[in-house]
Amino acid sequence: MTTAPITLREEQAGRVRQYLWTMAVRTACFVGAFFFEGWLRWVCVAGAVLLPYFAVVLVNAVTPRGVSEADTPAGQRRLRRELESS
To answer: Contact 36/44 with Cβ under 8 angstroms?
Structure first.
């Protein structure tokens, strides 16, 4: 069972957590831009501007899922026939 892929729900929950953490860092960058001076302020500004792009790209980089037979039209027809015959 160690090679079983994670469920879609677990994958989505992980993606949401990753996005929320990235946006929390972005918020910290916004706040830090007001309190820091010099180069650190510009690092915070750059983080606040660039993090949304990277967050979306990272979160949308999903692992491809294998296509099961039930996902094909022929597999769906077979499944429907099996359910109707039961």
So the answer is: yes
